[in-house]
Amino acid sequence: MKKLLLSALAVVAFGSTAQAQMDEFPIFGIKGGVNLSNFGGDVEDTDMATGFYAGVSLDIPMKGIFHLQAEALYSKEGADKLSVTYLRMPVMGKFYVGNNFNVQVGPVLGAKLNVEADLGDEELNSASERSFKALDYGAAAGLSYELPMGLVIDARYYLGLGDINSATIATDKITNNSIQLGLGYRF
After folding, report:
1. What angle do CA 95, 101, 107 make, to 5 degrees?
2. Model pTM?
3. Each residue's pLDDT tens digit, 153-175
4. Nearest 5°: phi and psi at 124?
5. Cβ–Cβ under 8 Å, residues 53 and 37
6. Domains of the chain
7. Which residues in the chain land under pLDDT 70?
8. What letter does residue 134 receive in the DSSP assignment?
9. Which residue in 179, 184, 182 sits closest to 49, CA to CA?
10. Beta-carbon count within 10 A of 21 CB
C-alpha cells in the first residue's frame, strides 16, 4: 500500500511539473500541399517529380518561443517515372521569431508504403518495388506563418540521410530530397 501511494504521488508530481512546463494546451491541425522531389546520392541526374502530401499535426507549446510539432503525413515522392509513397513522421522543433512566424527544424522518419514505376518494361517495374528499403530517415527545415484565423502557410525542405537503395546488383547510394509547399489549419 505504501508503494502504491508513493507511486501515485510521483505520477501526480510529474504530471503537474510537465503541465507547468507548457504555456498552453496542444493544438491539433491538418495540413497538405505539393511535393517537389528528386533522388540524390550517387544516382544520375533525374527529373524532378511533382507529388503531394497530406496529414495531421499536433503542436505542443513548451516554454516561451519553443514548440514541438509531431506530424503524420502521407507523402508521394520520387523522380521522373518512379514514385515512392511514404508515411512520414517528422518531429519539428519550432522557434517563433515573431507573433505568427516560426522557423522549424527536426528529424523525419519515413515508412515506405508503395512504389509505382513507369519504366516501359513490366520486369523493371516489378523489380523497382524491391529496390527500395522499407525505412527512410532524414532531416527537415522550414518556415511557417500562422494567420490569426487558424490558417497556416508552410514551406519545408527534406534532406534524406539514409540510403534507400536495397538493390543487390547496384551499389549506388540513393537518397530522397524534397521541397514541400502547403497550407494547413489549426483547430
Report:
1. 40
2. 0.80
3. 999 999 999 998 887 556 688 89
4. -65, -40
5. no
6. 23-186 (2.40.160.20)
7. 1-23, 119-129, 168-171
8. S
9. 179
10. 10
Cell numbers found for residue 36 = 517537389
CB 56 within 8 A of CB 28: yes
C-alpha cell at 127: 523489380
Helix H or strand E encompassing 86: strand 82-96
Read off the amino acid at residue 80: D
- Please give the pLDDT value at position 44: 72
CA distances from 22 to 32, 144, 152, 173 (A): 27, 21, 22, 42
Q: How far apart are CA 108 and CA 139, in angstroms?
A: 5
Which pLDDT belongs to residue 82? 86
DSSP per position, 135-171: EEEEEEEEEEEE-TTSEEEEEEEEEE-S--B--SS--
d(C-alpha 78, C-alpha 158), whole Å:
13
